[in-house]
Specification:
Elements: H1 5-8, H2 10-25, E1 27-28, H3 38-44, E2 55-56, E3 59-60, H4 66-83, E4 87-89, H5 95-106, E5 112-116, H6 132-136, E6 138-142, H7 153-163, E7 167-170, H8 181-191, E8 194-198, H9 203-207, E9 220-224, E10 235-239, H10 253-265, H11 271-284, H12 287-309, E11 313-314, E12 323-327, H13 335-344, E13 347-348, E14 350-352, E15 366-370, H14 372-376, H15 381-396, H16 401-417
Parallel strand pairs: 1-13, 5-6, 5-7, 7-8, 8-9
Antiparallel strand pairs: 2-3, 4-10, 9-10, 11-12, 12-15, 14-15
The chain binds D-serine.
Length: 427
């Protein structure tokens, strides 16, 4: 029991060392990634990983859960306070599990769901045929408009009236603009659907008050906790004023959700991650988180403007949140080529389809770029200008390994000026 990781398993230890260096010396621009605080990391790596705690605080199926109750109650209370929610379930292991639990709480297999098409910025769990959501339910999709690349609410309403979905899902993984939550709720009400909003990407912006909140509009709001919210990799489900909707007083949406998460979808909660969620939610309640959230958006706007200035087409013309989709194919570059070239230059992004893409997802016509992680490291507008220029140069010189290596050196220099974890130096 007393061996260090390096002694017990040198192979895993070496991979961890390399990953540590990669995270410290690169520019992490994947829109869904972030860096947790050392406090969150400590909780996530804590001995709560040893504990089984099936059930909920005060109603567990195992003994010895008194401290698990403490951290779960802290996480629930902080989530409710942060988002102004009536009910919170902090046990979902991931965003996918949160969505699976939300749907299963209100609909049956075979029922129709309506979500944003994945290739228009949606998410696998919003009905894609390869996901549980497209296999278990009957998926239908709305899209963005071809001219504006904004959500087509008229089309959504038309499809909802025709297909009568039981659940309408908002949110996605590559939509750079604001959502009309009220319009979606009106459409859901018109057809008697439950409105589920998946705010995984924007949760931190909502928490920081720089993005409108879906909570007052959606029956159920789901999220991950690791993206803009800057917590551990995990999920969370929230209910607003519709907490008590149900055919019988005791059949509230909140209660259905709790049953749906456990024992419906999951067994024991990952208590180390629940503890880490409590810490992250506590951090997001502090005033400085508002400053952080505002800076994410400011940085994204500057970076998008810089790339536009360099001649790239930004899908929908810009961004209102933490991410942008860059149409690199307009310049004859595949998203996959762009991802590779930027990777060589020390800038991590992901290839991404753009609306009405003519290329398949593994090639794609776009790249998705986000600012949450580098904002956590303290980068602001001036650094975004520099990063924008590097991205443009790396894409221009994508077949020139020497040029990409030179950018990588400059990138590492910048990254080292914005240190991540102090313990890196001790290694
Ligand atoms: N995979 C996440 C993302 O990158 O957006 C969504 O689950």
């Amino acid at each position: 029991m007393s061996l260090t990781l390096a002694q017990a398993d040198p192979d895993v230890a070496a991979a961890l060392d390399h990953e540590t260096l990669r995270q410290h010396e690169g520019l992490e621009m994947i829109a869904s990634e972030n860096f947790v605080s050392e406090a969150v990391l400590e909780a996530a790596g804590s001995i709560f990983t040893n504990k089984y705690a099936e059930g909920y605080p005060g109603r567990r199926y195992y003994g010895g859960c008194e401290f698990s109750d403490v951290v779960e109650n802290l996480a629930r209370d902080r989530a409710k306070q942060l988002f102004g929610a009536e009910h919170a379930n902090v046990q979902p292991h991931s965003g996918s599990q949160a969505n699976a639990s939300a749907y299963a709480a209100v609909i049956q297999p075979g029922d129709t769901i309506l979500g944003l098409d994945l290739s228009h910025g949606g998410h696998l769990t919003h009905g894609h045929k390869l996901s549980f959501s497209g296999k278990l339910y009957r998926p239908t999709f709305y899209t963005v408009r071809r001219d504006t690349e904004l959500i087509d609410y008229d089309q959504m309403e038309e499809i909802a009236e025709r297909e009568r979905p039981k659940v309408i899902i908002g949110g996605g993984s590559a939509y750079p603009r604001l959502w009309d939550f009220a319009r979606m709720r009106a459409i859901a009400d018109k057809v008697g659907a439950t409105y589920v909003f998946d705010m995984a990407h924007i949760a931190g912006l909502v928490a920081g008050g720089v993005h409108p909140s879906p909570i007052p509009h959606a029956h159920i709001t789901t999220t991950t906790t690791h993206k803009t919210l800057r917590g551990p990799r995990a999920g969370l489900i929230l209910c607003g004023k519709d907490y008590s909707v149900g055919p019988k007083p005791e059949q509230t949406i909140g209660k259905e959700i709790d049953r749906s998460v456990f024992p419906g979808q999951q067994g024991g909660p990952l208590m180390h991650i629940v503890a880490a969620k409590a810490v992250a939610l506590g951090e997001a309640l502090r005033p400085e988180f508002k400053t952080y959230a505002a800076q994410i958006v400011a940085n994204a706007k500057v970076l998008a403007a810089e790339l536009k200035e360099a001649g790239f087409r930004i899908v929908s013309g810009g961004t209102d949140n933490h991410l942008m989709l860059v149409d690199v194919f307009e310049k004859g570059i595949l998203g996959s080529e762009a991802e590779l070239a930027l990777g060589k230059a020390g800038i991590t992004v992901n290839k991404n389809t753009i609306p009405y893409d003519v290329n398949p997802p593994m090639k794609a016509s776009g790249i998705r770029i986000g600012t949450p992680a580098m904002t956590t490291r303290g980068m602001k507008e001036p650094e975004m200008v520099v990063i924008g220029a590097w991205i443009a140069k790396a894409l221009d010189r994508r077949n020139d390994d020497a040029a990409l290596e030179q950018i990588r050196k400059e990138v590492a220099e910048l990254a080292n000026r914005f240190p991540l974890y102090a313990w890196r130096r001790a290694q």
